[in-house]
Amino acid sequence: MVAADGAIWFTDPRYGIDRPEEGYGGEVEIPGCRIYRIAPDGDVAAVSAPMPAPNGLAFSGDQQVLYVADSEQGLILAFPVIGDRLGEPAEIVAPDEVGIPDGLRLDTDGRIWTSWGPQVRVYVPDGYDKAQFLGAIELPQTVSNLAFGGPDKGTLAITATSGLHRVQTTVVGGGY
């Protein structure tokens, strides 16, 4: 994810390393999974404490909050962004029996769109400490990722177990 200042933010879940069915397998080289930031000058820094499996991430429109899906714990966290670092996270969406969050994007109204088992779920964040469930799009397979695109940024592209789906929405995808 590229921030407005040109920094690149990313996560490093171990998929493909400790789950050979999702990659090639291998040995873990860096202890703990974290959120990282590459500054515009190329400096790389871990900006979070170790987490079980940080995965999808997206900034709020004002870039004051970084939302992160932790796919191992099955929850969504909100981190306050403090310059080039992150503050303490708050759990804003709790785990449930339907699935786990994976990919994550925001629309221009600040709603969180996340892949979650066989659904794309939509949440409305309320500050740093909670989010309200708004609704879901049901799909026939487990959803892995999603992104807004198209000329109007209103088309939601969704990757699933063995398919690619496209849904025209009435919202506009966010920029970060």
How would you describe this structure to a colleague?
The chain has 176 residues and is an all-beta fold. The protein has no helices and 15 strands. The strands form four sheets. Strands 4, 5, 6, 7 and 8 form a five-stranded antiparallel β-sheet that branches. It has a four-stranded antiparallel β-sheet with strand order 9-10-11-12, with no helix packed on it. The mean pLDDT is 91.
What's the helix and strand layout?
Elements: E1 8-11, E2 35-38, E3 44-46, E4 54-59, E5 65-70, E6 75-82, E7 85-86, E8 90-93, E9 101-106, E10 112-116, E11 119-126, E12 130-138, E13 143-149, E14 155-160, E15 164-168
Antiparallel strand pairs: 1-2, 2-3, 4-5, 5-6, 6-7, 6-8, 9-10, 10-11, 11-12, 13-14, 14-15
